[in-house]
User: What shape does this take?
Amino acid sequence: MESTPVAVTSITMDELDEMVTKRVEDILAKNEENKIEEEKVEEKKSEDGSWDIFGYGRTTLRASKNNDWNTTGYDEHAGNLMGRLGGEQETNYLEIGGSRKWAKENGSWAKVNARVEYGNDYSYIDSSSPESDDDSTQFELKELFVELGGLESLPEDYTLWAGRRYYKRMVGAFSDDFFVQSSGVGIGIENPRWSTALVGVDTDGSADNGVTDDLGKSGNTVYNLDMRYHGVDKWDFQVNLYMDNEDNKPTDKDSNFGFATRATYNLPGYYFAGKGFSNASIIYGKGLAGGSAGVNFGDWVPTDISDDAQMVRFNSLGVWDINEKWSMGTELNVILGNKDNEWAPDGFKAGLIARPQYVVNDNFKVIFEGSYGKRDFDADWGGAESYDMISGTIAPTFTVDSGFWGRPEIRTFITYVKDVSGFKSANGETSEILIGTQAEFWF
Assistant: This one.
């Protein structure tokens, strides 16, 4: 039987190697595409439906010599001025917040943010709590806002938000002074270079025209157009316009409009010299913005204030990493007012705080804090036009992280406060000793 010839195509070894290599590359490329797609799916799964939770809290037992070693608060005149270590106003404070993000295949996303706070005898002049006139302690809603991004109707890196928000606050970490914030309810748009927001608050100052809400607070709403620019290296700029619609002011000179501006510079290292970080802010406010330190919005804004009222603020904060054992944080805060500003009349208030820390080992450190505060306004507040105060604290501290910002930790402390001007501003005496223990955490 005659066999059928078979056509044989000959290839060289180089051609065979090339075919195999091409096939392997195709398989690897396909696998890489599948891997990327799987990662995208996993990323969307992780963003879609899970809550990111954060919190902060501290609880303090504090007794004072002037109060026969019963528990006590700290002198109100030292708030937002002196160092807070050992002198926090509240016994217990807790805030819990969280956010949930939804990501869609078209690149758009949404994020819901919420925060509640609890505190007893706890107040800031700018981000105050509690908000009602109920003296009982309670959880209160502090933030509830929605963010939207990746929208086809907006450029790629723009975010739109609306709701109630602690908006872009800056704090003096050792005095607890939120010297920059536009907290309120409103709407805003932002990107990495600039941001603009319109927020409003019902003022918690004096009820200027006698019109009050059901809680006895002023029925006057103040609006703030907050504009910031972040596009210059190491600099941050801000301009605020304050407006209200209160017709019946106590005097004809009382303002319905205010203007404020701020410039912040993030210095290299610790004031150009040591290892660490530092920043400095200069703030100016006039009219309706004059009584709230320019860019310090919130429900404390005083509206019975002159068109000619002016205020200048300077704030600086830094932490110096000296070596493996020693570090130190410092803060300087200064407020200057003019004669037309009854909230800072023709004088100044200033505080200087230093907080050194020595690390004994990974789980034990000793924190020191010293502060000096002076107030010299042309007004009789609490029985004195001016006073000078000094304080010193030593706080042996147990912790799971001995870094400067390491938390959670348990500290014991002893604090000495003295009014060197002789006025009895330290819990009714010229000097005071506070002892106690405190737990603090954040996550």
Notes: The chain has one domain: 52-442. DSSP finds one helix and 20 strands in the chain. Residues 13-47 form the longest helix (35 residues). The first strand starts at residue 51 and ends at 64.
